[in-house]
Amino acid sequence: MSFASDVRGELGRVPVTDGCCARSELTAALLCCGGIAWRGRNRYALTITAAEASTVRRYFGLLKQFYGVVGQIRTLSGDALNNLTRYQLAVPEAESLALLQSLDLLEEGALFGLRPIPAEETVRFSCCKKSFVRAAFLMCGAVNHPEKGYHIELAVSNEALADFIARQASFFEINMRKSARKTKPVLYLKRAEEISDLLSLLGASSAMLAFENIRVKKEVSNRVNRQLNCDSSNINRVMNAAENQIRDIRYIDEELGLDKLPAPLREMAFTRANNPEMPLGELGELMTPPLGKSGVSARLRRLSDIADKLRVNCPSGMNCALRM
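Request: output the structure for the sequence above.
Response:
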């Protein structure tokens, strides 16, 4: 099973004990799956279609427990569904109008007599807001496996419903961004912390812990890799600098002779030449008197300056090369 299926499976097992939350979930399920069809003259066909059988069973149970409605569960497949199996809960047509009235989805004067978004009373309490977003995810949500990337989204049928869902999530300080995919608005999160917060809010605690476990492992691995790359880069830089320093010292010895150098520079040249891989701090400890890293670096720069002047055949000769 995919990570998204695991999340939906866990959300499908979150208990619903209050009628207000059941109403909120069923309202979201019908609206987000496009499950309301007008048959004319106060006749409606209601269906809830989902990718997971557990989701459909959840709403079968809520309908029966809170509204006394016994729906029919069936499977759908075929070319139109790309040979994928979908599960559908159909509400008896004789019960549909009463159920829509109970869910407060009917509105006189609206297109087909239906509200495009729920009444505010449906999500009056925080538990109802949470239930609405949970059902929206069960119907039209998807989440990447955290090993592949951080992304969670809800592909909703219309802008009004997308904005309504985003407002419910923002109540819990989860700010979902919106984009468009073809004709559908898509709400999404890409930051790992926000995705973790949303999973926890909706009740997918096990999925959230699995997500966090993988996220922490990835962050530790990335941090270690960055440190290794940084250390490797520093080592290469130090080695290259030491090679250049030794090359300059050898050139001075060939063209001028190290014995012509001032005593401090001569000591530095011999110490570096005899310790090609030693870092600056340890080189300084070998000097008499000991030097700090800045002192060692300054003397090595003076040796490099002398080598550079010798390479360009300084017209003033040796004195120019040694002048500091």
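The chain is about 55% helix and 10% strand.
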